[in-house]
Amino acid sequence: MQVSKAERNRKLFDWLGVAPFMLFALMFLIVPTLYLVTGAFQDAEGHFTLKNIVDLFTDKIMSSFSISIRISIASAIGGVLLGFYIAWALVLGGLPSFVRSAVMTFCGVASNFAGVPLAFAFLSTLGRLGLITVLLRDWFGINLYATGFNLLSFTGLTLTYMYFQIPLMVLIITPALEGMRKEWREAAESLGATHAQYWLKVALPILLPSLAGAFVLLFANSFGAIATAFSLTGSSLNIVPIQLYAQIRGDVLHNANLGYALAFGMIVVTAISNIIYITLRVRAERWQK
């Protein structure tokens, strides 16, 4: 069937609408990724080598991946548990609508609050001379840092990451909770199920793909974060993004190709996480249709 000139012009106009996005993705995502992957398999002279990949398995770099993964898992678990409870209270807890609107607005802002501002906020709040630290010391006689707590540590960075992980979880899981049908609860209750049995045997199995997908997404979100960690801890906590920054920026650790290999390793971890998330998300959407 012959396509009219007007139809061709309309399709061309439609493609022009997405052209800026495609150009942006090509310039700032696809091309840089290909450049990093190519550089990971080259030496300083541009020759093919596997040395950079082999060097990823040295103790120092494996330790960086280990601590990054552990921080990502810890902050993702905290984000999922607390974020799910907040979302449940908003959607199913019977709170006033204005409370939900205020919380969702805050979550939209807080989920993107990171980097230097977030690091400064936590230093001002939980640093050695932070507001909460001083209040606990002067009003309750509790020396927070004498208990072993340190903001510039694994626990401190995990707590800082949870500031944006929790609101992100609320935004992710709220649509899944809204998709829970009243008929499912009524059917369970008509068969004699208690409130706990309904959640354990009906609601949670349905929500499990969404919860697991949210966990994976939160893991990937914190695994690639660098601005907050570097602003808060400097180089005292040797996570992968900071190790990558040290290799590329040109100091004594300068080895750009090893940095490319580190970036390649991060791409692999993040890609696996995203594939798992997409798979679980597709499965979760079957129940929401």
Describe, in plain words, how this protein is organized in 3D.
- The protein has 289 residues and is mostly helical.
- It has 12 helices and no strands.
- The relative contact order is 0.13.
- It has helices at residues 5-40, 51-55, 59-92, 97-110, 116-126, 131-140, 154-178, 182-190, 195-223, 227-233, 240-248, 256-288.
- The chain crosses the membrane at residues 12-37, 67-91, 103-131, 151-177, 198-220, 226-246, 258-280.
- Belongs to the binding-protein-dependent transport system permease family. CysTW subfamily.
- This is Acriflavin resistance protein.
- It is a multi-pass membrane protein.
Radius of gyration: 24 Å
What kind of sheet is the major sheet?
A: none
N to C succession of SSEs? HHHHHHHHHHHH
CATH topology of the largest domain: MetI-like fold
Q: Gap between N and C termini, in Å? A: 35 Å
What percent of residues adopt helix (DSSP H or I)? Answer: over 70%
The computed structural class is mainly alpha
CATH class term of the largest domain: Mainly Alpha
In what range is the share of β-strand residues?
under 5%
What is the molecular shape?
A: globular
Overall mean pLDDT stands at 86
Domains counted in the coordinates: how many?
Answer: 2
- Low-pLDDT stretches are none
* Number of DSSP-assigned strands: 0
How many helices in DSSP terms?
12
Looking at CATH, the homologous superfamily of the largest domain is: MetI-like
> So, CATH architecture of the largest domain?
Orthogonal Bundle
